[in-house]
Specification:
By secondary structure, this protein is an alpha/beta fold. The protein is 32% helix and 17% strand. Strands 1-7-6-5-4-2-3 form a 7-stranded mixed sheet, with helices on both faces. The longest helix has 21 residues. The relative contact order is 0.18.
Length: 205
């Protein structure tokens, strides 16, 4: 009955192990999504839901539209967003980042490499700065994966997003890396075990 599903499951596990190896991660830290946009949104929303007392998010003015649109949505919901600027060469001022971090900052989200300028941000240094303050860190690595070395065993990143079509995978596949031990709240939640509870009915006769 489940032979086909088992075969598909084996292929998914193989893919998970390959992605983990590419990133220097563990297979259980790899979550498949529908796209890079979903991965970005899931990471940020998970951080906010896991820390409801924190209402501040830091990102940049040059993020992919997926993050900019999410930020605008969050502002409408009462969250405060800080958008870091860049210089004429597209580089961040890390002092500005340091000054922007607050006690109520839930997450910092800064892309690995810019999709328009090609600027590569110093993610190792940025992640270390953020983690020193005890804040969750997310990076959109859609443009970097497969082009730049990424070793998450040495990089203190909590969430990292990829898009499959950038790596010759079928369209409609994304990846979200979630560091082991990071509290994670997914968008979609299914019933554990897949069994619905028995419905109570009332006798009418």
């Amino acid at each position: 009955m489940h032979t086909f599903g088992g075969q598909v499951g084996k292929s998914i596990q193989d893919a998970r192990e390959k992605v983990a190896a590419m990133l220097g991660a563990q297979p259980e830290e790899i979550v498949f999504t529908s796209c890079g946009t979903e991965s970005d949104s899931t990471a940020v929303m998970s951080a906010l839901q896991a820390q409801p007392e924190k209402k501040h998010v830091i990102t940049t003015r040059v993020e992919h539209s997926a993050l900019i649109a999410l930020g605008q949505h969050l502002e409408q919901k009462g969250y405060e967003l800080t958008y870091l600027g860049v210089d004429s060469k597209g580089r961040l001022d890390l002092d500005e980042l340091s000054d922007a971090m607050r006690k109520d900052t839930a997450i910092v989200s800064i892309m690995f490499a810019n999709n328009e300028t090609g600027t590569v941000f110093p993610i190792q240094k940025i992640a270390e700065m953020v983690k020193e303050r005890g804040i969750l860190f997310h990076t959109d690595a859609v443009q970097a994966a497969g082009k730049l070395p990424i070793d998450l065993a040495k990089m203190p990143v909590d969430f990292l997003a990829l898009s499959g079509h950038k790596l010759h995978a079928p369209k409609g596949i994304g990846v979200l890396y979630v560091r082991k031990g990071t509290r994670f709240i997914p968008f979609l939640r299914g019933r554990k075990g897949g069994v619905a509870p028995a419905r109570k009915t009332r006798r009418t006769s």
